[in-house]
Amino acid sequence: MLTLDRVSYHPAASATPILKQISFTLAPKKMGLIVGPSGSGKSTLLEILAGLVSPSKGTLHWRDQELQPETLQQLAGLVFQFPERHFCGHTVLEELRIGHPELGAEQVAKTLESVGLSAISQQAAPHALSGGQQRRLALAVQLIRQPYLLLLDEPTAGLDWSMKQQLIGLLAELKKDWSLLVVSHDASDLEHLADYCWTLQNGELLTKPLEMLPVA
Ligand SMILES: Nc1ncnc2c1ncn2[C@@H]1O[C@H](COP(=O)(O)OP(=O)(O)OP(=O)(O)O)[C@@H](O)[C@H]1O
């Protein structure tokens, strides 16, 4: 269970706070969706949750444990918007083993299977995969680290309709085992999967009106 209590972020370079008193709770095996326009602070919030940026104020907890950035780096796995731009391995296997050379063949195969990539060659170049396969590989890179919380920045951006549907199906599967927090400027693709839905506007988190939540 992840809990944020009045988390704010106000870097010196910004005249106004980028995030203002953000509070929410995300239970295990649930998906939270945060929708907001460009510049509302979505990526900054994910960076805080991934332990890449320290909040100026407020606290983050996992159950009863207060989380510092170093712990968040272990706990959370962040999949960037356009993650394919961040691949550095020459092969799929290399990409999965970056930072984890000890990973065995069985774990690699199991993780690729969990994202629907068991049919691809582990020797294929990540850049030679299709757009949808690259997104799946980026998810696998995070899943193999066994995070408690999976953070996704605009996971369907730039995918065509069929790849989008496949990715949405995959997120529905992943939700059975992981806590997911997704940020997006467009709720329409993912709203039906979300257990919680919030709007981020000028750094403030608002609960979406009930009538806009998916019907259970
Ligand atoms: N370190 C920083 N110093 C000053 N301003 C910053 C800093 N980091 C982010 N900002 C500003 O904070 C605002 C929120 O940025 P952020 O990237 O989090 O928004 P976003 O909702 O993810 O936008 P997009 O959907 O376009 O990616 C922007 O106006 C950005 O320029």
UniProtKB/TrEMBL annotation:
This is ABC transporter ATP-binding protein. Residues 2-215 form the ABC transporter domain. Belongs to the ABC transporter superfamily. One of its GO terms (cellular component) is ATP-binding cassette (ABC) transporter complex. GO terms for molecular function: ATP binding; ATP hydrolysis activity; ATPase-coupled transmembrane transporter activity. It comes from the Bacteria. The lineage of its organism: Bacteria, Bacillati, Cyanobacteriota, Cyanophyceae, Nodosilineales. Keywords: ATP-binding, Nucleotide-binding, Transport. The keyword ATP-binding applies.
